C-alpha cells in the first residue's frame, strides 16, 4: 500500500567544510546532494523523486549557503511519507527534527527572517578592546534599515528593485579565546540576503577598520555607481536560524498545526556547532590562516 505523503518542515544543521554550498549542482559535492541521496537510501523517496526533487517532492530550502558556509538552523520543506535518514548521512549533516506543516508551506517563501553569524578572528580589526568593538558596531549599524545593496552582490543593477534589502540588526559581541586565538561573533538578522551580501558587508567593515578605506565608501555604495567592495572569507559564516513568525502567528495556535519552534533542540545544536562548525573555523585560522591571507589582498582593491 502506498503511504500518503505529507508536507513537513525539516530542521537540520551542517558543516559546509568540503561542500560547494547547499543547493544541488551537478558534478559538485553539495549538502542537498547528500541529503536527497540519504532520503532515497532511507526509502523516504523514490530514486525518480530524488533525481527531480523540486516538482516531485516540492523540495525547498529556506536559504542557500555558499561554498564552505555552515548552518546550525537550516529548514527545508518537502513531502515525505516516512523518515529514517541520519544513518545514511555523514556526521557533518544532521536532521534534528521534522514537523508537519500546511500544504501551502514553503520553507523559503514562508520565512520572514534569517539570522546569520560570522565568527571572525579579532586581529582582523586589531585586538577588540571596548573602544574598537564600539567602532565596529557603529559601522555595522550603518547597514541597518532598508538600503540598495547592489554593490554588495554580483550581477545586480542599481535600478533593480530586488537589490533593496531590509536589515533588522547587525552587531558584534564580546571577544573570546579559543586555542590561543581571539575571536568575536558578528550576528546579523534580516528579511533575506543576496549572494555574497553578508561577506561583502563584513569585508568593507574590516577594510575601514584597517585603514584601507574611509567611511565614505559606505555612502558611496548606496549610490548608482559601481564600487569595489571586498568579500570576506566564507569560513566563519553560518546560517544560525530561520524565522517563521507569521506562519506561527496564523497557524501555531489553531489547534491543528504545530508551531515551527526548534528550541527543544537547542543543546543538540550547540553541541553540533562546537564539534563540527566552530572547530572548522578555528582549524582554518590556525592551519590555513584564512583571514590573514585574505587581508593581504585588500591592497589590490580600489576604494
UniProtKB/TrEMBL annotation:
Gene3D superfamilies: Pseudouridine synthase I, catalytic domain, C-terminal subdomain (3.30.70.660), Pseudouridine synthase I, catalytic domain, N-terminal subdomain (3.30.70.580). It is found in: Nucleus. It catalyses: a uridine in mRNA = a pseudouridine in mRNA; uridine(38/39/40) in tRNA = pseudouridine(38/39/40) in tRNA; a uridine in tRNA = a pseudouridine in tRNA. Substrate binds at residue 116. InterPro entries: PsdUridine_synth_cat_dom_sf, PsdUridine_synth_TruA, PsdUridine_synth_TruA_a/b_dom, PsdUridine_synth_TruA_C, PUS1/PUS2-like, TruA/RsuA/RluB/E/F_N. Its EC number is 5.4.99.12. Residues 141-245 form the Pseudouridine synthase I TruA alpha/beta domain. GO terms for molecular function: RNA binding; tRNA pseudouridine(38-40) synthase activity. The keyword Calcium does not apply. Its main location: nucleus. GO terms for cellular component: nucleus. Keywords: Isomerase, mRNA processing, Nucleus, tRNA processing. Belongs to the tRNA pseudouridine synthase TruA family. Monomer. Forms a complex with RARG and the SRA1 RNA in the nucleus. This is Pseudouridylate synthase 1 homolog.
